[in-house]
TrEMBL record:
This is Biotin synthase. Its cofactor is [2Fe-2S] cluster; [4Fe-4S] cluster. Pathway: Cofactor biosynthesis; biotin biosynthesis; biotin from 7,8-diaminononanoate: step 2/2. HAMAP family: BioB. It is an enzyme of class 2 (transferase). It comes from the Bacteria. Residues 63-288 form the Radical SAM core domain. Binds 1 [2Fe-2S] cluster. The cluster is coordinated with 3 cysteines and 1 arginine. Binds 1 [4Fe-4S] cluster. The cluster is coordinated with 3 cysteines and an exchangeable S-adenosyl-L-methionine. It comes from Posidoniimonas corsicana. NCBIfam families: bioB.
């Protein structure tokens, strides 16, 4: 065995075999340690393609060349009482964004039609809120059975903090999955939000899990966190057993007081995606908000580690035209999978 393999933290740059050894390890069922995940994030740029090759081997094992697409519907925008420092919809944000209460049935149904037309597997209904009020709960309970009946879409609801009772009501009306991001590592959480805690978010995920729905939870890269914070979030998500992990890259928005982080280069974004793939090998890893801005011309490489992405716009920022996403997937030789074909982890 080479010196590099014996001693992963030796000064010598890791070699291609080091990343393949990590892939071998996770494919054999032995989870990555925090130290190994940190090593992935610290991968030299010169080793990036070798790292991606190892991540792709793991992605291929669980998801072949499938790509799952998601379409976001910002069903209620702005007006949030929380102070999440990265969010254009927070009470402290000065960003000029649309502000409206929960959309009408017709608009929500129209979004589902677009999701179906765009080959999205999942329609994500998102509201800005600390948690849903009764009117919002009832709107979701009414629309979800209609959407499922008419379009057969997988439904993800992102409604903020949930009680056990609310989680059970969502399950009962047909919601398949709830998104509630941890956003960052536990140690960094109080620097990005003071109106609720990391533990509040974990409790919501546990309520979702107890109600029998899939958990979707990920984070945002570029909020002043350390590599250790990102690793700690990835390991927490693995331990919670989340099904789907959206990895966002912070989009600086005028009026939102969260400075751009210079180290979030396209290469660093790819290392982050590879780290999530190796820490959570059989989970769905989604390239989420900030894909176009931060990965730029390296976007296609992201799909060698991740196996899903959003098509269309994000909550308050624009995505690239869907045709460019379809072209990118075709150029890679990958295939879009629909609800019925998806191999759900
Ligand atoms: S709870 Fe959600 S919508 Fe409200 S400020 Fe935080 S991230 Fe934004």
């Amino acid at each position: 065995m080479s010196e590099t393999l014996d001693c992963p933290t030796a000064n010598a740059a890791p070699t291609a075999s080091r990343w393949q050894a990590l892939a071998d390890q996770v494919l054999a069922g032995e989870p990555l340690t925090a130290e190994q995940a940190g090593e992935v994030l610290a991968c030299p740029d010169s080793e990036l393609l070798n790292l991606l090759d190892a991540a792709y081997r793991v992605r291929r094992h669980y998801f072949a060349n499938q790509v799952q697409l998601y379409l976001l519907m910002n069903a209620k925008s702005g007006l949030c009482p929380e102070d999440c420092g990265y969010c254009s919809q927070s009470k402290d944000s000065q960003a000029e964004i649309p502000k409206y209460n929960i959309l009408s049935r017709d608009k929500l149904m129209d979004g589902a039609r677009v999701a179906k037309e765009r080959d999205a597997r999942t329609y994500c209904i998102v509201i800005s809120a600390r948690g849903p009020n009764e009117r919002e709960m009832k709107a979701v309970e009414t629309i979800v059975p209609e959407i499922k009946e008419k379009y057969g879409l997988h439904i993800c609801a992102c409604l903020g903090l949930l009680t056990d009772d609310q989680a059970q009501r969502l399950k009962a009306c047909g919601v398949d999955r709830v998104n509630h991001n941890l956003n960052t590592g536990q140690g960094h959480y109080e620097k990005i939000c003071t109106t609720h805690t990391f533990a509040d978010r974990v409790d919501t995920l546990k309520a979702v899990r107890s109600a029998g729905m899939e958990m979707c939870s990920g984070g945002i890269v570029g909020m002043g966190e350390s590599n250790e914070d990102l690793v700690s979030m990835a390991i927490e998500l693995r331990e919670l057993g989340v099904h789907s992990i959206p990895v966002n890259f912070l989009i600086p928005i005028e009026g939102v007081d969260m400075p751009h982080q210079e180290h979030v280069t396209p290469q660093y974004c790819l290392k982050t995606l590879a780290m999530f793939r190796l820490v959570c090998p059989d989970r769905e890893i989604r390239i989420a908000g900030g894909r176009e801005m931060h990965l730029r011309s390296l976007q296609p490489l992201g799909l060698y580690a991740a196996n899903s992405m959003f098509v269309g716009d994000y909550l308050t920022t624009m995505g690239q035209p869907p045709e460019e996403d379809y072209q990118m997937i075709r150029d890679l030789g990958f295939e879009i999978v629909s609800e019925s074909e998806a191999s759900v982890c």
